[in-house]
Design a protein that fits this description.
The protein is mostly helical. It has 23 helices and no strands.
Amino acid sequence: MPVIAVVWIALSGGTENLQHILQTVLPRATLRTLSLVLLTGLVSCLFGIVTAWLVTAFRFPLRRLLSVALVLPLAIPSYIGAYTFVEFLDFTGPVQSFYRSLFGFQSARDYWFPDIRSLGGAVLIMSSVLYPYVYLACRSSFLMQGRAAADVARTLGSGPLRTMLRIQLPMARPAIVIGLTLVTMETLNDIGAVEYLGVNTLTFSIYDTWLNRGSLPGAAQLSLVLLAFVAVLIAIERLARQRQRFSVNRTTALVNDQLRPKLNGLSGWLAALLCFIPVAIGFLLPFLMLLSYALRRLELLADPRLSKALWHSITVSGAAALATVIFGFLLAYTNRTEKRKLAGLAGRIASLGYGMPGTVLAIGVLMPLASFDNAFDALMRSQFGVSTGLLLSGTGFAIFYACTVRFLTMAEGTVEAGFQKLSPHLDMAARTLGRNRAQTLFGVLLPNMRPAILTAALFVFVESMKELSATILLRPFNFNTLATLIYEDASRAQIENASIASLIIVLVGLIPVIIVSRSLER
């Protein structure tokens, strides 16, 4: 429905509106978007591949701790990263203040300092919180390769670096493509960071065209361009996975820690430093700044705005988690029991929601819901003389619906992975022992699927709490979530006031990160 709604609204815009967009908005926004996506992907790959290779190929000081800590930046939403980086590196921040006091400068005209509110600053911030997608994919791929291929290359005279570039890296290409696809989708979805940093991407142009210029058809037409980006991206990712397949011998894929070459002395500490830098930039710096601000603003814990926003976040995120788990379980269970093409097709169609940036999804959700509300209100007025108002678009239901559409694939994928760990013979054994299909589902499968279901619900709950791009457009009046409350405070340059709400989101976001880290260690 959201895709059909966006196409319908775009076609209703007319050619004059389209010509204005093609001449004035689209070229600059497309160039900025491509630049941001390509540079963020490049830096994320650099961080992710190098760190994944180091922690899987060598032993060095603090390796086990750093291998887990490298996942922590996933707990920092990109917009919170942007707010804290600007506070840290701006003119009034600690870095420039120390720089001026050190050299005796009095004003910004006396010296040059890189501007964090720029394309380069956006690339640094986005890649510092998104590189774990590439790191996780590459780390798993390097571990699955084992030592066999690398050892054969070493016996043929290849050094560690050449082995990585010529053997291990090409074998990890499917994993790199998957991680890079996730980085690109998150970059396209972002609106809080790019707006705060002054980088006018397609996502921000959709927001600006709709709210500031009052042109909904123009925003929908830009949305189609952004959807075309996503479609090409998904096609490239699918093609890469089809053309690159590698067989792994499970008996040789297990890497004993003692078999890894040990980096001694300076080289070992240099490897530890290279792994620590992304953690420091992507997690420690934002987290410590938020913590210092929050300790100075503890009185905000009693602020009714914070408690109300927290309640809205919990209710909307909890409802989205429940709905996505139910729908995801139905899709995964049907695909397990029916084995029909239609069941698999339904799952693939449902997964497309994650590829829709939040601003595009907001347009596709709000217009149909508002049309239904207006039609139902008109019906009730004419028949009963009662005004129902905006039942769906005027409440938190629109945000709940958007989060359900966007994160359904996350729940379905997690539940599907849980089903794959259960032997299909389990169903058959229960049926031969006299259980019918419903008894098998509720008495055998559901108890075994409880960890996967709870994990799926947790992931969706956390992602819904962090969601900003759709929420900022769909929220009704006087309805704030933690994410929109942070956005409002940051828009008024009151980052300290947003510190407690930001810290809550980060601490909640740490829960799934810790789960992923523990699974990596196991």
